[in-house]
Amino acid sequence: MNASHLCRILNVPRSLYYYCIKEKYSVRNERLLRFKVLIKALYHQYNGIYGAPKIHAFLTQKGYNVSVKYVQKIMRLLGITSVTIKKFKHYTNSKVKGVFKNMLKSMMLSILKNATILMKFGKQIILC
After folding, report:
1. How far apart are CA 107 and CA 113, in angstroms?
2. Does residue 72 surpass a pLDDT of 60?
3. CB within 8 A of 70, min separation 6: which ones?
4. DSSP letter at 11?
5. Residue in 84, 82, 77, 94 with CA at minimum distance from that of residue 35
6. pLDDT of residue 102
7. DSSP letter string over 43-106?
8. CA distance 72 to 52
9. Comparing C-alpha atoms, which of 36, 19, 43, 22 is closest to residue 77?
10. What is the C-alpha to C-alpha distance for residues 117 and 110, in angstroms, rounded to an integer?
């Protein structure tokens, strides 16, 4: 069987077949694949808690020459992120102190007082 017949059976363009044959070995791609496997294994070993700095420290401790930015790049390519827990932050306004009176209640009480005073004098009040 020739290449064009195989490509037709597999429903793959012939150009892709010839591109794959011509593709040369790359040290960079080999290194990337090796670190992808290592980082993914470490990430899953520690249940996704380790981020790029801790994975970088672990890899350098084992003797691998890799930077934090390279680990970040690979984690981004793999689509994995570490678990982050935000610290609790108190949102208070130190300028505001004391207890405030209920303004609406005081306004309604004053309106009712005025209404009762006017009713005593025999005037009619129409409240809307």
Report:
1. 10
2. yes
3. 35
4. T
5. 77
6. 75
7. HHHTTT---HHHHHHHHHHTT----HHHHHHHHHHHT------PPP-----TT--S----HHHH
8. 5
9. 36
10. 11
Structure tokens at 48: 């996704």
Report whether pLDDT(128) > 50.
no
Q: Count other C-beta atoms under 10 Å from residue 93's C-beta.
A: 6
> Looking at the chain, how many residues does it have?
128
Which two tokens mark 29?
A: 């791609």
pLDDT band of 18, cuts 50, 70, 90:
confident
Amino acid in position 56: H
Angle at the Cα of 14 from the Cα atoms of 13 and 20, rounded to 5 degrees:
100
Residue 98 is predicted with a pLDDT of: 65
Tokens representing 13 are 């363009």
CB within 8 Å of 83: residues ≥ 6 apart: 48, 49
- Amino acid letter, residue 75: M
